[in-house]
Sequence to fold (427 residues):
Amino acid sequence: MSAVTTPVQIRYEVRDLGLAASGRQRIEWAAREMPVLRQLRQRFSQERPLAGIRISACCHVTTETANLAIALKAAGADAVLIASNPLSTQDDVAASLVVDHGIPVFALKGEDTATYLRHVQIALDHCPQIIVDDGSDVVATMIKERPELIKDMMGTTEETTTGIVRLKAMLKAGVLTFPAMAVNDAETKHFFDNRYGTGQSTLDGIVRATNILLAGKTIVVAGYGWCGKGVADRAKGMGANVIVTEINPVAAIEAAMDGFRVMPMIDAAAYGDIFITVTGNKHVIRREHFLAMKDGAIVCNSGHFDIEIDLVALAELSTGKRTVRNFTEEYSLEGKTVIVLGQGRLVNLAAAEGHPASVMDMSFANQALAVEYLVKNYGKLEPGIYNIPVELDQQIASIKLAAMGIGIDTLTADQKHYISSWDEGTE
Ligand code: ADE
Fold:
């Protein structure tokens, strides 16, 4: 399908505009669980802080992202949206954004890599002043292939750990010449989205793809960062025996003291019924691990890129491959099978709907406030990677708490004095 123009003269490339009604209903459903973003949208529509600002957003096109896009548009932004992963787009959401909100969307579930890359170019054709990125592909492509566009850039906001790792490498290499907001590093982002969001949605993806019982299974979780912690904890809660693999000795101790067995992947390979990679690194599961696995082992990834499982090695070891359910492929090796979910792409977004709205509420409130911050501070920020200001993080947490109906204590004057002084100790 190629880009076309609607009666309202916007370009788009989505699966089927006829899906818009379903998308609209689901976007509204997600909005109920997004009180922080709702408040921001209301303020944005009065103050219009992004009036006329060209934004290219590269995100998973989900109901939650739709609510972010609607908030940016309410703020006056001239935004286009492309998919940040070939398998994560919800086609009905993409259709509704075009039809109901007039937002140019370029995203198709199952798009091939060439289409994905073409959409990245379309995002750049928009001559963005701000890039809202998830994985840093748009920023990296701008720097590598279209550096003449950099002069218009006010900055970028980055959603994921993987994207921030790439931004740090760009900064070190001297090629990041505009400010970047590390949205992922806000406490109200990674404590909740990475941990509870990835924890729940990863298991959701596995269950939707396979319909297997998790209780009693041995689940191997590769990586014990915030995402790994969430996945391991939720898998334990579902009655699985969880093994963690790590390369970081501190994280490995943490996993052990959280009650998980910790061992190298080559040993875990023989035990696992299900393998989940959440490391951000490549080839975490490779040839020797496939060879050591049990018949019927299920392998999937919830890290940003589809490089954690070495599928080329698996294909080389295999005599055949067949699709046995949606997003579920069975590879035949000598005498056994290995099952791969979602082609090694993010299983939570490929086979399920990604993180639930309640956590994306805080992540995307951070995104929206980060964009506003870049615009407000244009010309004042040196090139570099910036954290979301603590006051904004706290503000998001306070609104979320209020929406959850939870009250907390406040410091007395005496306590405030105590925690900012040094002279009171042992009496
Ligand atoms: N990343 C993980 N889950 C997501 C969601 N529901 N929407 C957008 N990005 C996501």
Remarks:
- The pocket of adenine is lined by residues 59-60, 62, 64-65, 197, 349, 354-355, 360 (CB under 6 Å).
- The chain has 17 helices and 17 strands.
